[in-house]
């Protein structure tokens, strides 16, 4: 069911594959229709409506554009991470310079526009698998009280982002950068959260 931009619509209890899409762009309606072939989708272009929805329901994953009506996707990231069952958040944007702020706000993945629908499906699937593994590991950690399992759980919650602690920012030389998107088989996007810079460099494995 689709959310209207004026209010939150009551829907049936959330299941394991529900998705909240927050995007005011003209192509969002077509994207939501495509996603509905696999997921139960709630869609809105309003940050206020999206935040109301997140306070009432627990979607399995959130996909948000950064440029929203009267607000931005950074607030959606923060709101989603406030809930006890914080869903993974995938940010979509054409503004690469804003990616560091999204990463700091807790987004679990970034997909740069324009993108093909199959790339969105692949990224959502990866985040849902990582979340499932993280929740299982977290439950196991609570049972065994294991430091090792706790560290693994935190690593899995990072979603499709990957931190490279020994790589230095080419702008400020700060140690520790975050890889957030591949742009080819050999090159990838990286961000320095300290210096708020983004760049393309050779993929690290």
How would you explain this protein's 3D organization?
- It is built from six helices and eleven strands.
- The protein is an alpha/beta fold.
- A five-stranded parallel sheet has the order 2-1-3-6-7, with helices on both faces. A four-stranded antiparallel sheet has the order 8-9-10-11. Strands 4-5 form a two-stranded antiparallel sheet.
- Strand 8 and strand 9 (175-182) form a beta hairpin.
- The longest helix has 28 residues, at 117-144.
- The protein is globular, with a radius of gyration of 17 Å.
- The N and C termini lie far apart (40 Å).
Number of strands: 11
* Main pleated sheet: 5 strands, parallel
Order of helices and strands: EHEHEEEHEHEHHEEEE
What's the helical proportion of residues? 25-40%
Average pLDDT reading: 82
Q: Report, as a whole number of angstroms, the end-to-end distance.
A: 40 Å
Q: Treating each run of at least 4 consecutive H or I residues as one helix, how many helices?
A: 6
The gross shape turns out to be globular
Q: Could you list the spans in which at least 5 consecutive residues all have pLDDT below 50? A: 1-17
Order of strands, main sheet, comes to 2-1-3-6-7
Strand content: 25-35%
């Amino acid at each position: 069911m689709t959310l209207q931009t004026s209010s939150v619509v009551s829907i049936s209890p959330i299941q394991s594959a529900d998705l909240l899409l927050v995007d005011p762009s003209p192509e969002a309606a077509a994207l939501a229709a495509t996603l509905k072939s696999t997921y139960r989708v709630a869609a809105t272009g309003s940050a206020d409506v999206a935040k109301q929805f997140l306070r009432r329901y627990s979607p399995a994953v959130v996909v948000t554009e950064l440029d929203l009506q009267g607000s931005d996707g950074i607030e959606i990231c923060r709101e989603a991470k406030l809930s006890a069952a914080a869903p993974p958040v995938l940010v979509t944007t054409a503004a690469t310079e804003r990616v560091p702020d999204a990463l700091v706000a807790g987004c679990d993945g970034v997909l740069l526009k324009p993108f093909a629908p199959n790339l969105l499906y692949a990224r959502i699937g990866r985040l849902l698998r990582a979340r499932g593994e993280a929740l299982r590991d977290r439950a196991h950690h609570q049972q065994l009280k294991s430091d090792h399992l706790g560290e693994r759980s935190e690593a899995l919650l990072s979603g499709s982002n990957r931190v490279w602690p020994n790589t230095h920012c080419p702008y400020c030389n700060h140690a520790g950068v975050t890889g957030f998107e591949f742009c080819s088989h050999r090159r990838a996007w990286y961000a320095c959260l300290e210096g708020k810079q983004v760049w393309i460099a050779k993929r690290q494995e």
